[in-house]
Specification:
This protein is an alpha+beta fold. The protein is built from three helices and eight strands. The strands form two sheets. Strands 1-8-3-5-6 form a five-stranded antiparallel β-sheet. The longest helix is centred in the middle third of the chain and has 13 residues, at about 60-70.
Length: about 150
C-alpha cells in the first residue's frame, strides 16, 4: 500500500461550476501506478466547493450555478458582509456542496462514471486562485510511490 499527496493550485475562475478532472489527473502522473485505491480531493477554501456531476452537457454546470444562486442569493440580509456581498452566500453554497470528493481508482485511472467529472464550484465573483489537496491511497503494485 502506498500514499501520494499533491497540492494543486488552480487558476482563478469566474463564478460557476468548472470541470477540473483533467487538471487533477494531469497533476498526478503517478496515478497510473495504482491498481486499486482512492483519490480524495479537498479544497482549502470556505467560499468554493467540489462536486461530482455530469460532464457531458454544458447546461448542467450552468443550471447548478443558477440553482445555487437561487438557494443562497447575494441579496439576503446577511450579517457577515465585511468581505463583500458575494462572500456570505459563497460560504452557504460551499457548506451545502462540500469541501471534498472521493473517487475510486482502478487500473491507474479515476473510476468515474461515463458522464461524471470533478467540478470546482466557484461561489465568488472573483475568488482568486484556489488550492486543492489531492491524496491517493492504494495498491501501487509494490512500487512504493511516496
Amino acid at each position: 500500500m502506498a500514499w501520494l499527496q499533491q497540492e494543486i493550485r488552480l487558476a482563478p475562475r469566474r463564478r460557476g461550476c468548472h470541470l477540473i478532472t483533467g487538471e487533477v489527473t494531469a497533476a498526478l502522473p503517478e496515478l497510473r501506478r495504482f491498481r486499486v485505491g482512492l483519490v480524495h480531493v479537498f479544497i482549502r477554501h470556505t467560499s468554493a466547493s467540489l462536486s461530482i456531476n455530469e460532464n457531458a452537457d454544458p447546461d448542467v454546470p450552468a443550471d447548478l450555478a443558477m440553482a445555487l444562486d437561487t438557494i443562497a442569493p447575494d441579496d439576503l440580509p446577511y450579517a457577515h458582509t465585511c468581505e463583500g456581498p458575494d462572500d456570505m452566500p459563497a460560504h452557504v453554497k460551499a457548506s451545502l456542496m462540500g469541501s471534498s470528493v472521493t473517487v475510486p481508482v482502478r487500473d491507474g485511472q479515476l473510476c468515474l462514471g461515463t458522464w461524471q467529472g470533478i467540478y470546482l464550484c466557484e461561489h465568488r465573483d472573483r475568488g482568486g486562485p484556489r488550492c486543492i489537496v489531492v491524496t491517493v491511497h492504494g495498491d501501487d503494485g509494490g512500487e512504493g510511490v511516496a
